[in-house]
Amino acid sequence: MDYIKNEYNTILERKGAQQEGSYTCYLFDQGIDKILKKVGEECTEMVIAAKNNDKEETVYEITDLIYHTLVMMANQGITPEDVEAELHKRAEKAGNLKKFHQVDKNT
After folding, report:
1. Are 70 and 7 in contact (CB under 8 A)?
2. Rounded distance between C-alpha atoms, residue 16 and residue 70, angstroms
3. With 0-12 CB in 10 A as exposed, 13-18 as middle and 19+ as buried, what is 95?
4. Residue 97: its pLDDT value, please?
5. DSSP string spanning 80-105?
6. How far is CA 59 from the centre of its chain?
């Protein structure tokens, strides 16, 4: 998670320091619609790479998706700690699969 936090902090620095030639700054300048478009594109590319069973390409696309997701998070004021807290909450719910898959035979 340290790498994610470091990357997020770099993204925040770029957000505040309009650096010419920076792709991150370009995304922030374009706004949330462009950022979300890139998140969607990278998500689709990751799915296609995984479907094609291409490990190298899948890793590449996962990395692109993580980067663009971090840009979106920074834009929306969501921190890696926010996500980590949610992951911890979900980990506490482990073992509840049966509750989610019970069939009500009366309906």
Report:
1. yes
2. 15
3. exposed
4. 66
5. HHHHHHHHHHHHTTTT-HHHHT---T
6. 14
Q: What is the pTM of this model?
A: 0.83
CB atoms within 10 A of CB 26: 14
Phi and psi torsions of 100, nearest 5°: -80, -20
Per-residue burial over 40-69, b if 16 or more Cβ lie within 10 Å, else e, is: eebbebbeebeeeeeeeebeebbebbebbb
Per run of 10 residues, the mean pLDDT along the chain (length 107 residues) is 90 87 94 98 98 97 97 97 93 70 59
With CA atoms as reference, report the closest residue to 22 among 31, 13, 32.
13
Is the CB of residue 11 less than 8 Å from the CB of residue 24? yes
